[in-house]
Amino acid sequence: MAKETFPGTVPAADPRAAKAADELQSRAPQAPQKLPDSTGLRLLAVHAHPDDEASKGAAMMAAYADAGAEIMVATATGGERGDLLNPAADTAQCHRDMTGLRRTEMKNAAETLGVSHAWLGFVDSGLPQGDPMPPLPFGSFGTLELEQAAAPLVRLIRAFKPHVVTGYDESGGYPHPDHIMSHRITVEAYHAAGDPQKYPECGQPWAPQKLYYDRAFNPGRLRALHEALVEAGIESPYEERLLRFEQGDRPDWLTTHEVTTKVPVGDFFEKRDAALRAHRTQVDPEGFFFATPNDFLREVWPYDDYVLVDSAVHTELPEDDLFAGLRD
Ligand SMILES: [Zn+2]
Of all residues in the chain, what percent carry a pLDDT higher than 70? Predict the structure, then answer.
């Protein structure tokens, strides 16, 4: 995961950011926002590798689990090609059985978030590097035919019966072949699961009712963090990146979906952090994901962000609830 680079970073554990959080806290105390009771509602989040669920939407899942919803994470691959990314986690087992270790880490992360978890059973494609790019490993997730890759997810949707499915956008959120394939199977399974003509060997039809893409890193969030830093008299690390964004200078894989849905998750950032730390071999506790103090985030952007891409129920945009339109 540390290989993934995102738009917008805050310098690691910058004490000035903590000071800004304190200043903002004293200036504009904000009542905690809660989700409505979500008993009886179900959400399935589709991810590519063990640890992706902790870096994208973890606070959202913990918040809905706390509100009574049933949450399931589906992880497409075992993360077999992940390297040890946290020097402090170097043990003999890392070298002997990284895959087994990551299964244990995933179990711990799911328990931390209060969610169920299923493996879709595919093999990590790795991130090909070089010029020319080498082919993906034979049989890996990114090389499969769509129907073959989507079948286990269709089966899971029909068994778990989610009302809402979340996944990555067309770019994968990050152009890793497994993330792009995760996008493709999410869309395929979301539409096919309710159709009795499709995947007849994968159980009784169930049609989920809303599909969202993750927008964890979006220009609105960057701008809010940037302006809060500037207001607090602190040099913003976002300035150059924001300018480039706003002048249309962006990587060509980056999509431009607007956020439609901001879920209040401010009380659950510590659970997200704990889920990240559960992926001990993959997440450096001094790294990017812990760089922005939670009190600062709670003040400036206490949301996980999504774009609604399909809905079978009536809902009004913008939303602050992924289950909007599904409650009685
Ligand atoms: Zn990943």
Answer: 89
Domains in the chain: how many in total? 1
73 CA distance to ligand 1 middle (Å): 14
The answer to whether position 93 is within a domain reads yes
**How far apart are the C-alpha atoms of 246 and 128, rounded to whole Å?**
30
Tell me if 312 sits within 8 A of 326, measured CB to CB.
no
Inside any domain, residue 80: yes
Q: Where residue 283 sits, what CATH number does that domain have?
A: 3.40.50.10320
Distance 1 CA to ligand 1 centre (A): 6
Query: What's the whole-model pTM score?
Result: 0.88
The answer to whether 266 touches 298, Cβ cutoff 8 Å, is: yes
Residue 153 has which token pair?
């997810």
Can you give the residue range of the structural domain that contains 187?
40-127+138-219+257-307
Report CA(179)–ligand 1 centroid distance (Å). 6
Q: What is the pLDDT of residue 276?
A: 95
Q: Is 49 annotated as a binding residue?
A: yes
